[in-house]
Each structure stands twice: as structure tokens, then as C-alpha cells.
Amino acid sequence: MNNPLGRHVLAEIYDCSFEILNDVQKVEQIMVNAALEAGAEIREVVFHKFSPQGVSGVVVISESHLAIHTWPELGYAAVDVFTCGERVNPWDACNYLSAMFKAGHMEAKEIKRGLGCERMAAVSV
Predict the structure, then answer these.
(1) Residue 84: strand, helix, or coil
(2) Looking at 8, 64, 94, 98, which residue is catalytic?
(3) Which residue, among 77, 86, 83, has the nearest Cα to 107 in the 3D structure?
(4) Measured between alpha carbons, how far is 125 from 70 in angstroms, rounded to an integer?
(5) Which helix (H) or strand (E) holds 107?
(6) What is the CATH number of the domain that holds 20?
(7) Residue of 84, 94, 98, 105 marked active site
(8) pLDDT digit string (tens) for 68-119?
(9) Is residue 122 classed as helix, strand or coil in its secondary structure?
(10) Among this protein's residues, is 84 annotated catalytic?
(11) Residue 68 in contact with residue 78, Cβ under 8 Å?
(12) Among residues 30, 76, 109, 125, which one has the fewest Cβ atoms lying within 10 Å of its Cβ?
């Protein structure tokens, strides 16, 4: 199998706005808009505000998901964007998130998912 089943970007987003990362409605809106910016089709959205601070959430898309956990006190957001197929670009979502969180910088890496599926099928019981 030469083509991956999906692309999974793990993003470390630093030096973000405390106010944005601690506001569950803003984080949800930004995450939903990031999915749309990337060309995804949204299925479900779940977000939770922690006390005293922080937000976790997931946007389930037809192509897989976007997930986040924030540490507003550190200006940090841990994000993963997993997309299947060729239509949705996970980097578009990550770059959008970084801009909207007013980040100082982002470090990210992409993992190709499902490259070993042919081998797995050959050895499965």
C-alpha cells in the first residue's frame, strides 16, 4: 500500500491568548471553523470547560476528528487533527488554529496512518 489511509497532525501550539484558551465557546467556535477551513464535514461537537481553567473538546468530522486540550495558564494548546482521504488538509486546520489562538509559534508533525494495513490483513487470524 503506497497511499496512507489518513494523515494525523499532532500540534503543539505555544504562547497563545489566555482569554481565548480559557473560553469554551471561543475554543469550540474556532475548532469548528478550523474543520470548515480544512474542507471537512462536521458530524458532532463536544467541549468541556474545566475549573479553574482549561478546555477540552472534539469535533468529529466525516473524515475523522479534531481534538484539543488547553492549558491557558501556560498559553499552550495540544491539538490533533486526523483526516482520511485526500479532500481535507489537516495542515489548513492547524494553521488556522494557530492564527486564531494568537500563538507565538507552533510545532507540529504529521504521521501517515494505515500504511501497514496490507501487512496486517495478510497476518490477521
Answers:
(1) strand
(2) 64
(3) 77
(4) 41
(5) strand 105-113
(6) 3.60.90.10
(7) 84
(8) 999 999 999 999 999 998 899 999 999 999 999 999 999 999 999 988 765 5
(9) helix
(10) yes
(11) yes
(12) 125
First to last CA, the chain: 20
Question: What is residue 120's DSSP assignment?
Answer: H
Set of cell numbers at residue 117: 494495513
Distances from the Cα of 49 to the Cαs of 53, 83, 107, in angstroms? 7, 25, 25
Number of domains observed in the structure of the chain: 1
pLDDT at residue number 78: 98
Within-domain flag for 36: yes
Domain span at residue 49?
Answer: 6-123
Domain assignment of residue 1, yes or no: no
94 is catalytic: no
pTM for the whole thing? Answer: 0.90
One of 17, 56, 62, 69 is an active-site residue; which one?
69
- Are 115 and 30 spatial neighbours (Cβ–Cβ below 8 Å)? no
**Three cell numbers written together for 51:** 475549573
Is there a catalytic annotation at residue 16? Answer: no
For residue 19 the three cell numbers come to: 482569554
